[in-house]
Structures
1.
Amino acid sequence: MADIGAQTPFFYIFRERELIYDLFEAATGMRMMHNFFRIGGVAADLPHGWIDKCLDFCDYFLTGIAEYQKLITRNPIF
């Protein structure tokens, strides 16, 4: 199935995954092995502007969901 385009949706979503990793890195300092929550609270406050970046990502991602849904549900492979 990989030869006929079944992996295309996964490759499309890599863009958003990288943006999410950027948000994690901005908040915790690490991209994948983040350790932010501690006993009694969190390691540090969120950096200035992080919430705005997160809301911008949410707006961007919500507009792309229709594209991904169309790519998966209207694709004859699936």
2.
Amino acid sequence: MDDNQEPKDKAELVSEDGKNRKSVLCQRCGSKVLCPGMAIFAEKELVLPSMRKKSGLSAAEGSVDSDTLTAHWLVDDVYTFENVGFTKDVGRIKYLICADCEIGPIGWHCLDDKKSFYVAVERVNHA
């Protein structure tokens, strides 16, 4: 990942114990997704569909553009979230969205692992 793609200075966002220093907020509506100190910084390569509108769908294949993201906030319990919604199952995956404005996907959850919810650092704001 290029330095200019890094979502801000990592030390600004991640505390000494590896948790989020700031609140995690929806980029569109500002709704709080996570309180400070509630998630662990994790580097895992995940492919998430692009956050473009449905017009971004390819009519020929029905496929969507996607982004490979590596910096995430890892949460081990769904009740840790202040505000999060889920898409319908896509295979064994549920995508995380903002529960208020439904923008997303902001994250990823595999149904095989009940204790891993990933929120992409680049797809949320921090305050």
3.
Amino acid sequence: MAGRGKELGFVERNGVISLKEQLARTALRNVRLKGHTYVELREDNKKVIFFCVLCLSPCYSDSVLHDHLRGHLHKQMYEAAKATLLKENPFPFNDGMLFFHSEDGVERRVVPSNGAGNGNCLAIVPFEGNESENEFSSEGSLDLGQGDEGVDVGDLVIPDVLCKDKVSDLEVREVGVGKISVRYWDKDKGSKGIKKIWCEWLGKNGSVDDDMISYHDFAVVSFAFDFDLGRKGVLDELQDFLSSSSRLEIEGNKKGKKRKSPSDTDLSESLSNQEESSGEESGNSNSKNLLDVYDDKSLQLRLVPDKYTRKEIRTRQRLASERVCDICQHKMLPGKNVATLLNMKTGRIVCSSRNLNGAFHVFHISCLVHWILLCESEVYTKQLVGPEPKRRSRRKKGAKSKKVDEDVKKQIYSAFCPECQGTGIELDGDELEKPTVSLSEMFKYKMKASDGHKEYIKAPELLQNCSTGFHFPSQSEEAMQENVSPLKLLRFYHAVE
């Protein structure tokens, strides 16, 4: 796993920074001045620890950190990073899994939202300091003209996106562009296959040597992660649970002719006050009352006296705060960069074709880039191999034709959401897109992506710019010719907060 701690970043308590945290920041500053920009601070059981993003290794003291940086494993990862991630033009993202760069020099801390925020929802605020967990924010856009088809590039407005518990338009700014390329082999017997595929970061001012390279039909949209991103907040679920459980409790007390305790009276009055309002004011007042309940522990105990109810609340809060990336199964950290896919032909988030409420799935941005590369490798492999020749057969089709149809469904023909398999196509009415790849096949694809990236770390493509990708080593010892071909240009956007 990516760390044994909570991986929640820093929580500032009463505006006071502890002495241990100050010492840790000083040690971190000294380590980064030596070139270890991939080391950051995280919190593990209310204790500040060091974390090496290159190796995904937690270090619980500065001495352990120095031992790790001198270790054999870290040296191997560092040599690989020098050829992929530690170049002059790095990926301007920080997802806590692979990317660790930020363009601004402002240290940012993860702190609880004050006032109108959920106790589980953390916000990014600037903190005056030198270096720590940085977060990307885009101030400009990249003008690259127009793609082959679909919407114009540059700053975009994506319609019908669930943001902060309501469906609205989402404004995004273009961050830069990456170039997807492939190295393929060609044997003497005519067989072909992919050896490596990668995404090279060109950046905002990146120049494209070949004007014939087309833009990808999909783009990456990044966000600063919080627990309710892309879905309805946990407060709505807790509100329904509180209302149902409290009604059952009150009805049980009436049937048993039990005398209500003061706490029960307060609870019923609170719920009745919430139910009196209607329409839009009702939703706002309910959310506000629930926020007040969870922000004040004494009030929470007074309004929620039942032990089972309190346990259920804590369970739902914990589950909501432990969202993992469906591609790598590692936690997504508050404030770090996560991303979703945008269909550039329709101008809609890919998950929009799988639901009608604007919800969408997010993943580590590096994991999503790898998923796009995997989809491209599957599509390009079909182009290299070509269609299989049809064989004449006198047998009846029957079960055989069904098997062929199932094999066709398992194949990947374009990029799609790795969790819901949405592609963002436009559908009529309330019709929803149906998934085509089975869960077992999806698991195999994700394992293939993980193994391919591990091999790429061992033998990366030597490029001028930063890159990440896959390596699929050939098991054959036959003589083969290798060629490199650029495939597509991949756009990156960042949501405007």
4.
Amino acid sequence: MGPVTDDEIIRKRLLIDGDGAGDDRRINLLVKSFIKWCNSGSQEEDYSQYQRMLSTLSQCEFSMSKTLLVYDMNLREVKNYEKTYKEIERNIAEAHEKIAECKKQILQAKRTRKYHQEYDALAKVIHRHPDRRETLKKLEALGKELEHLSHIKESVEGNLEWKRKQFYVLLSILYELKQTLGNDEKPSKVEAAQETSMETDPKP
């Protein structure tokens, strides 16, 4: 075992001394007084030494009582600190839960806001267009008008076909008339040519 250093001696004295009130010195003084009292031969000196030992012992007891009180107080403080620490941990856990719940509420609020914006946009689009009943009425009216126009178209096409046939008949008649007129003009031309030749021939 190596030599004991001054720091170790001071550390041990501080541990023995407790709160630094000189308990170790009092105990050493009490031991010395007790030895001196045992070796003393005078009754007066024995009584005086006895009183000093009692006084020193009372001081040691008082210091020990004070140390015990401080120790009990420290234990209570430790318990209070542990209780406070647990309460702080519980509050921190509750705060984390509240923060998580607030985050959920914020996300829900964002989704709700998005839904409201989409609903408003859709409502604006719907308001710009007529309602279903009005649209059905317009479609029904357009259907009737389309049917009427179809009938008119069929009538016009029928009339056009009839006029086309009449036109073809007229063309046929004109063609036949032209042919007839052409045949009538040919003899007239022959007779005119003969008359012309006769007029140009000299008489004998």
